[in-house]
Design brief:
About 40% of the residues lie in helices and about 15% in strands. By secondary structure, the chain is of the alpha/beta class.
Length: about 300
């Protein structure tokens, strides 16, 4: 069980302690694109917006990540689309405090965000936790979506109550804040098939976050996000989705399915379950990539997105 706890903490590439008076907004390295801000009811949301295409893509990051995680995709896709990447509440440069961090909450935030930007129709591109939030959005606000793109989405793999309780037990702010720099490096390695030089900035950001005055709020957001993913299930929402959907998975994902809790479950079985859950959906498997496939294999992922978006 101890090995599982270590693995689970690693799964979400967490950080360590030591704080000063700077906020996370100030400790993060500059994003690759200019950061914009939008005031929502609960607080300020940070995002990037690039390109002027008629079709709009909204990118939704995963746990403990931020909008800059999509820069390798936006660099290419902005040539054909309007690309918007959001920092979800609790992450990046967005506000940190919220009562809950569930898929439903994030879906509602995305809806308010899109309405503020006066977006009538768009495509959601969600990764991991962001994929689970995008599934919930598709079931709750189907009229807002042109298409849905889910990259290694959370929420497909199901966990028992015992497994969920074990995960929640180890995911507390003190544990999160006690993670060392060396563990951060190991955590990120688990997200990639082959570690990239381009990932150095996001790794350094994780180390810098431990110096921010609002690091504890961020750690609480991570804790609540994990609980939210476990409690706010989306598996039943999948069959209700009528929006054209593209699934992208990687053959060498070390994080899903969970290798310790479900050692016999393969990525082929998980991706098949995903595809069969949404009638008419498309599945693309990416070779030689880990959980962070859109960052590790942007050429292949971007090509799959462009092909899917060109289909009627």
């Amino acid at each position: 069980m101890k090995i599982f706890f270590i693995f689970f903490i690693s799964l979400f590439f967490l950080q360590s302690t030591a704080q000063n008076t700077k906020t996370m907004k100030e400790t993060l390295l500059p994003y690759h694109f200019p950061t914009k801000y939008l005031q929502l009811k609960e607080g300020e949301i940070a995002y990037v917006k690039e390109g002027k295409g008629k079709k709009v893509l909204i990118f939704v990051h995963g746990l403990s990540s931020n909008s800059d995680a999509w820069y390798r995709n936006i660099e290419e896709l902005k040539k054909d689309f309007t690309c918007i990447a959001i920092d979800l509440p609790g992450y990046g440069r967005s506000f940190k405090n919220a009562d809950e961090f569930t898929a439903t909450y994030f879906a509602d935030i995305l809806n308010e965000f899109a309405e503020k930007l006066k977006l009538k129709k768009f495509t959601l591109v969600g990764h991991s936790m962001g994929g689970q939030a995008s599934i919930k959005f598709a079931s709750k606000y189907p009229e807002k979506l042109d298409k849905l793109i889910l990259i290694a989405p959370a929420g497909i793999e199901e966990f028992t109550e015992f497994e969920g309780n074990a995960m929640n037990m180890v995911m507390n702010p003190k544990t999160i804040m006690a993670t060392s720099d060396e563990q951060i490096d190991r955590n990120y390695q688990m997200n990639f098939f082959k570690m990239l030089k381009e990932a150095e900035q996001m790794i350094q950001d994780r180390k810098n976050i431990k110096k921010s005055a609002d690091f504890e709020q961020h750690a609480i957001a991570i804790q609540k996000s994990v609980k939210g993913m476990l409690d706010d299930k989306v598996i039943d929402d999948l069959t209700k989705i009528k929006t054209p959907t593209l699934f992208l998975f990687s053959k060498n994902d070390m994080l899903i399915p969970n290798k310790y809790l479900h050692p016999l479950l393969t990525i082929d079985e998980l991706s098949k379950t995903a595809k069969e859950s949404i009638n008419g959906s498309k599945l693309v498997m990416i070779d030689d990539a880990g959980h962070f496939l859109q960052f590790e294999k942007p050429t292949e992922v971007n090509a799959a997105i462009k092909e899917f978006m060109s289909c009627k």
